[in-house]
Amino acid sequence: MTALIELTNVSRRYRSGDETVVALDTVDLTIAAGEMVAIVGASGSGKSTLMNILGCLDQPSSGSYRVDGHETARLAPDELARLRRDHFGFIFQRYHLMPDLSAAGNVEMPAIYAGMNAGTRGERARSLLDRLGLADRLHHRPGQLSGGQQQRVSIARALMNGGHVILADEPTGALDSKSGETVLTILRDLHREGHTIIIVTHDASVAAHADRIIEILDGRIVADRRKAQMDGPVAAGAPSLTRLAGVSRLRHRIGEALPMAFRSMAAHRVRTFLTMLGIIIGVAAVVAVVGLGEGSRQKVLAQVNDLGVSTIGIYPGQDWGDERASRIHTLTPEDATALAAQPYIDSVSPVLATSGTARRGNVLVNAEINGVGESYFQVNNLKLGRGRFFDRHGVAERSQLAVIDDNTRRRLFADDPNPIGKIILVQQVPMVVSGILAPRRASEAGRNLQIFLPYTTVMGRLSGPASSLNGLAVRVSDSVDTRLAEGAVASLLTRRHGTKDFFIFNSDQLRKTFENTSRSMTLLITSVAAIALIVGGIGVMNIMLVSVTERTKEIGLRMAVGARRIDIMLQFQIEALAICLAGAALGIGLALAAGSGIGSRDGEFPMIFTGASIVIASASAITVGLVFGYLPARNAARLDPVDALSRE
Ligand code: ADP
Ligand code: MG
Fold it and tell me: Which residues cross the membrane (predicted)?
């Protein structure tokens, strides 16, 4: 017979504090394929240590261990995992079943790591459990099964991937004698079918079932007896496994990890929710802020666009707030006339704005008083609600006509349905109301009152003789490029004034200024949201670290049945991701709900949700899950199988 298992000079020493415990002392042992061996010895003699080394869960401190001719010391952790998965089947004294999984689920687990597809897997688990007399217990949880039944489930699990070599550490130790007898009978049958069976026991009557009994004392083999061959092994029949490869294998692993993640999230609902809270708040903040920003941006842009891109303003001074502006008197109505004569200009109006009082009867209000030309309304695209605008003659004759906006009408003519032709006092001077502007859209209705008079009237009758203007409002012809027209206007006025003592402002610049400020606001609030996400991520990491600690034993078990490091890593990484994604979904929902709540009130805080903001929020949640899930997942993957398994 060929040596399947070959230990040469193997020692295993444990270091505990300053002392070194020698659990195995220069052990030489050879076991052939198909043997049924019992390893017996008192408690503490080193049986489990030997078993762990045989099963590649642990490695010798010195000496050589070969499986099928392969030196195990030279195998990488993942190759050892593959060896455990494909060759060994473990049976533990305390069964080590996963309490959340059904009997069938437990039996299937090793096949998940072998990449067997779900259909084949379920079929095989059913037939194994059927064979072990558990056909009617497939969907029972371990807690609903007796000890003997649980041990039979664990035998089925050991056989799932083939289990050429069955390693049973005190398999009957926790069972009554009848169940123990059943388990031993099953092991004998498996031996007869060609499985190599290695049983560790302190019980001589259990050992009696084996063909070969190895006695161990204080880490040394002190006896190795063979009985007369009881019944020879049949050729080992390796089971044929349907394996998946490459990408579909990764997809398969993710597919397996997802339900595991959801099960563990469901098992700790409150904790999971609290963990998610940080992510929920962070994502909701990102989405809501971006939505609000977009909403107000579009609102302002709509207002800017109402002016039209072809509207430009000309003001004295170098720029807004120029302190010399009030002393510059070169901007005159003649400039307006000269500009109006240019072919690229659609219309021009002088502007002379002050604030003052308006009064009707005993109602006295403060209003913005605009002295303008007859073209002003066209330049600024103002629409008339009722009555008429004043015309060129009205301006030329300094007529006492007023166009008022709807706000002013409401204040001064609250009780009068027909203000046209009525008299109001503007700065004590009587004016006839000739027109009323159409009400502005609710979203842009300011609180200010506006009254428009001919600028000649303002100059001549209100503020005393003054010849210079606050500015010129210009509308460029539709067919002309605004930028070119701006250049032409600038050179014309510079020529007229002899110097450039004015500046030109157009709605494009207004838009840019606004977009800049709104961009920096968005940036600011987004960074606050990012901080919330990071804090949320730290919460996720914290809980995942706890989860890894709590589930150390589960991790050990998964490693024993053949999970590679990457499998464990993937499981926890996906769990972190699932928490973050669920949090993101809730956060997005929260933001949308808040948006429809606030947004529907009066359009004052419009929220506009773009696909981009939702994608960005989800992407950041994924990033948080990947980044903050990494450390716990790595910790889990780096656990030592023996350590993890023995953790209580
Ligand atoms: P058995 O299974 O035969 O009862 P073990 O193999 O579990 O014995 O233990 C053999 C010896 O090694 C014992 O003296 C035990 O205290 C020691 N030992 C086992 N595991 C460890 C460990 N992780 N650290 C330190 N000493 C250990
Ligand atoms: Mg033991």
Answer: 273-293, 521-548, 574-595, 607-631
- State how far the alpha carbon of 354 is from the alpha carbons of 238, 325, 350, 439, in Å: 98, 15, 13, 22
Measured CA to CA, the distance from residue 562 to residue 268 in angstroms comes to: 27
Residue 615 has pLDDT above 50, yes or no: yes
List of E strands, 92-164: none
State the pLDDT at residue 238. 42
Instruction: Kindly state whether residues 473 and 565 are assigned to the same domain.
Output: no
**Atom number of ligand 1 nearest to Cα 49:** 6
Same domain, 257 and 351: no
* DSSP one-letter string for 145-186: S-HHHHHHHHHHHHHTT--SEEEEESTTTTS-HHHHHHHHHH
Q: Each residue of 561-592: b (16+ CB within 10 Å) or e? A: bbbbbebbbbbbbbbbbbbbbbbbbbbbebbb
Residue 324 within any structural domain of the chain: no
- Contact (CB, 8 A) for 522 and 289: yes
Axis crossing angle, helix 507-550 with helix 269-307, rounded to the nearest 10: 170
Q: Model-level pTM? A: 0.69
Asked if residue 470 is part of any domain, the answer here is yes
Give the highest mean pLDDT range of 100-114, 248-262, 320-334: 100-114
Which residue do the tokens 């000269």 mark? 338
Domain hosting residue 495, numbered range:
329-500
* DSSP single-letter state for residue 342: S
**In which residue are the tokens 């110097």 written?**
499
Nearest-CA residue for ligand 1 atom 21 is 14
The predicted pLDDT at position 302 comes to 74
Q: Ligand 1: residues within 6 Å at CB? A: 14, 16, 21, 23, 41, 43-49
Q: Distance, CA 642 to ligand 2 centroid (Å)?
A: 12
For residue 506, tell me if it sits in a domain.
no
If one counts the domains in the chain, the total is 3
* Residue 598 confidence (pLDDT): 67
Whether residue 611 sits in one domain with residue 580: yes
Rounded Cα–Cα distance for residues 459 and 474 (Å) = 20
Quote the DSSP letter at residue 263. Answer: H
